[in-house]
Amino acid sequence: MIERRRRVVIVDAGHGNLASVRSAFLQVGCQAEITTDPELVSRAPVLVFPGQGAAPAAMSTLESNGIGQALRTAISSGVPALGICLGMQLALDRSQEGPTPCLGLVRGECRRFEAGTARLKIPQIGWNRVEHRDDPLFAGIPSGTYFYFVHSYYCSVEEDAACGWTDYGIQFPSALRQGRFWATQFHPEKSAAQGLRLLSNFLALV
């Protein structure tokens, strides 16, 4: 029988490639279930909150089906969780996209990269370095390792919430931790062996 800590519930907000996220967790030996049921979110031992696309549409889905409040309650009560890409952005107080009020789990704002920043293309699509300071989420992963990104917005958070940073015209937080909530702007499920290592580290932490 699979241990309780090895079962994760993946939240379906209607905006993400959930099959690849589930596949990655299966590869690291975890049972993974995708759900749109707020009751299941409320009872989950471990939550994963991935996403891609626009903040206004995703938040509308989350608030209309009750998953938004279920996420707030579960994570605020200490249920371990991992946000991925849009899931990291929606954890903040608000997004400039829209603008849109978000989940309010982490103090901060999601901001759009300025057009023409260092003449880099927006959205950022592809591999980029993530620097870190030995947070256990990155155990065994050298600082400066490349991970895969797809995003037009970045998170602006208080310094003590950030645990990973990336340069793309500006330096921005590409990973954060607050309590038992971790999040990455990059996609570990698309980041080959080091991405799987990060997911394994997350499971070990919870």
Summarize this entry quickly.
The protein is of the alpha/beta class.
Which helices and strands occur, and which strands form pairs?
Blueprint: E1 7-11, H1 18-27, E2 31-35, H2 38-43, E3 47-51, H3 55-65, H4 67-76, E4 81-85, H5 86-89, E5 92-95, E6 100-101, E7 106-112, E8 124-132, E9 145-151, E10 153-157, E11 162-168, E12 170-178, E13 181-184, H6 192-205
- Kindly state the mean pLDDT as a whole number? 93
Q: Helix count?
A: 6
- What is the number of beta strands? 13
The level-1 CATH class: Alpha Beta
Low-pLDDT runs of 5+ residues are: 1-5
Number of domains: 1
Work out the helicity level. Answer: 25-40%
Question: Which fold name fills CATH's third level, the topology?
Answer: Rossmann fold
Radius of gyration: 16 Å
Q: Which secondary-structure class do the elements indicate?
A: alpha/beta
Strand percentage: 35-45%
- Per CATH, the superfamily is Class I glutamine amidotransferase (GATase) domain
Apparent shape: globular
What's the architecture, going by CATH?
A: 3-Layer(aba) Sandwich
Q: Quick one: biggest sheet?
A: 9 strands, mixed
Strand order of the largest sheet: 2-1-3-4-13-12-11-8-9
C-alpha termini separation: 18 Å
What is the H-and-E element order?
EHEHEHHEHEEEEEEEEEH
Describe this structure in words.
The protein has six helices and 13 strands. By secondary structure, it is of the alpha/beta class. It has one domain (4-205): Rossmann fold (3-Layer(aba) Sandwich), CATH 3.40.50.880. The strands form two sheets. It has a nine-stranded mixed beta sheet with strand order 2-1-3-4-13-12-11-8-9. The longest helix has 14 residues, at 192-205. The model is unreliable at 1-5 (pLDDT under 50).
